[in-house]
Write a structure and sequence with these properties.
This protein is mostly helical. It has helices at about 1-20, 25-30, 45-70, 85-105, 115-135, 140, 145-150, 155-185, 185-195, 200, 205-215, 220-240. GO terms for molecular function: metal ion binding.
């Protein structure tokens, strides 16, 4: 199950990296400022790396402890028995797949049919594999024999836990996205909003004005380092004169 879980959560990530498109290609040509985000290291700085690490730690803690709390001493079967480790572990795996795929879906701003298949298909495939694996003879499936159709699916706590844990894992990330777009948007966020509200059609003057701003010269990369070195040398010369 662990290997299968990794496969199901890696395919949507590949789809994100291959098919994600912040803004259309024709818009990129009109707004050269978008190409400055890479040299400025806006997407791979330490704040973003630590943020993703923190999000991963938070998600893993929520999935683990919330499942433990919700399943602890709760009647899981009709005869009053509590959930065993197999049911608890399978529920955790389910929450992992839902949480990761939902966060990937929130990250995307451009969807294709391939991305839909890989994201929602990964979630659906998880249940299909649980169903198929549970029908294998007990000598091979062991404690997972008919785990979905006889143990998990009839239990409301399984579905409630999956929904609640997924919600708790995605809400902070959703709040972060909303806050960034509202109070600290990047260049591509602004252009996405302009395209969404069709300002490029309804207000062409503003569209051209934003495009002209994007063509203003900026000093990044090698030019910025040269200017910084010149300022440093000028500062040393001024100190010597004093």
């Amino acid at each position: 199950m662990m290997l299968f879980n990794v496969i199901l959560t890696s395919l949507p990530v590949i789809a994100l990296g291959v098919f994600e498109q912040d803004v259309p290609s024709d818009v990129c040509l009109k707004f050269p400022a978008l190409y400055q985000q890479g040299p400025k290291n806006l997407f791979f700085d330490w704040h973003r790396i630590l943020g993703w690490l923190g999000n991963g730690i938070y998600t893993s803690l929520i999935i683990f402890f919330l499942n433990i709390i919700l399943f602890y001493d709760q009647a899981f079967r009709s005869d009053g028995q509590t959930a065993d480790l197999t049911a608890l572990g399978t529920t955790m795996f389910t929450c992992v797949i839902w949480a990761v795929n939902c966060q990937i879906a929130l990250t995307m701003s451009h969807f294709t049919w391939i991305q839909h298949i890989l994201i929602w298909g990964s979630i659906a495939t998880w249940y299909i594999v649980l169903l198929i694996y549970g029908r294998i003879a007990p000598i091979y499936s062991k404690y997972a024999f008919r785990i979905l159709e006889e143990a998990l699916a009839p239990a409301p706590i399984y579905w409630c836990t999956t929904f609640l844990v997924t919600l708790m894992c995605t809400l902070p990330y959703l709040a972060h996205i909303a806050f960034q777009r509202s109070f600290n948007p990047l260049d591509h966020h602004i252009i996405q909003e302009i395209k969404y509200y069709r300002k490029d059609v309804e207000d062409r003057h503003m569209w051209k004005r934003e495009g002209s701003k994007a063509r203003q010269k900026t000093k990044i990369g090698f030019t910025a380092r040269v200017d910084a070195k010149i300022r440093q040398l000028k500062g040393r010369l001024q100190k010597k004169k004093v």
